[in-house]
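Researcher: I'd like a candidate sequence for this fold, 99 residues long. If you have to choose between options at a position, lean toward the conservative one.
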């Protein structure tokens, strides 16, 4: 399955009949089983239905950081993102890619 970033936004947890997706480095993970974290009111709800790579790398919940852009990240931030990516891979199924 391939979704644009606009289409991905439909999977933000606001519609309980749809799964919750978060994209990391272009891969879309189904994080529905973690809805207490990614669903409405969850600690990471701002990432639901979004490409969250930059924000995860920077350990940021700021709106301006929630994007696919990896430009100007430090080596440490790239390492943090790789750690997040491993956690997602271990815990959630990959269901597609961001177009």
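Model: Candidate sequence:
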């Amino acid at each position: 399955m391939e979704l644009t970033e606009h289409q991905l936004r439909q999977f933000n947890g606001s519609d309980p009949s749809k799964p919750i997706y978060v994209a990391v480095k272009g891969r879309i993970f189904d994080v529905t089983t973690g809805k207490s974290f990614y669903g409405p009111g969850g600690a990471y709800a701002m990432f639901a239905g979004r490409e969250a790579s930059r924000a995860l790398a920077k350990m940021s919940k700021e709106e301006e950081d929630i994007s696919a852009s990896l430009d100007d990240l430090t080596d440490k931030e790239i390492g943090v993102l790789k750690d997040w990516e491993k956690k997602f891979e271990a815990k959630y199924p990959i269901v597609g890619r961001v177009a």
